[in-house]
Amino acid sequence: MMADDSMQNMTQNGDFSHDIIGAAVEVQRVLGTGLPEEVYAAALAIELAEREIGFMRNVPVTASYKGRALGDVCRADFVVEQTVVVQVRAVDALDDLHRAQAQAAVRLSGHRLGLLINFNVFPVVKGVHRIGAKS
User: Fold this and answer.
1) Is 42 within 8 Å of 77 (Cβ atoms)?
2) What integer pLDDT is reported at residue 14 of this predicted model?
3) N or C: which terminus of the chain has fewer CB atoms within 10 Å of its end residue's CB?
């Protein structure tokens, strides 16, 4: 996908969720289920790059408490097109802790949208959860 097409898709959908989920579907189509999270993250990076979707990996997320810096408190697996935080998991089932950690990464990163993707669910689209930033 060309950068102009990517921006057009973002304008039509309001975010890059559709593109990210499409990339995740392709990763699972090729690799299947049952692999470690790191493998899916590496493959997702390749797939996003092939689709010419901009991203950063393992992005440190900082926080402060009462005006004092706490430093890096977590990492976003991906920040896609500087708008969407993506957290990759490969577990039997997502629990409240997975969701809370993804929510914290989205909120503290300053972004408004996140995707929590569980590659161990088939099809992977059933393992995608949209996470909004809550205060």
Assistant:
1) no
2) 53
3) C
Q: Which of 101, 67, 69, 73 is nearest to 87 (CA)?
A: 101
Residue 23 in this model has a pLDDT that exceeds 50: yes
How far lies 62's CA from each of 70, 75, 96, 111, 119, in Å? 7, 9, 22, 13, 27
- Residue 9 above 50 pLDDT? no
**Averaged pLDDT for residues 3-24:** 68
- Phi and psi at residue 51, to the nearest 5°: -90, 5
d(CA 121, CA 125): 8
Q: How far is CA 27 from CA 17, 74, 77, 82, in A?
A: 15, 25, 16, 22
Per the document, the length of the chain is 135
Q: Whole-model pTM? A: 0.87
Residue 113, token pair as written in the block:
């949208």
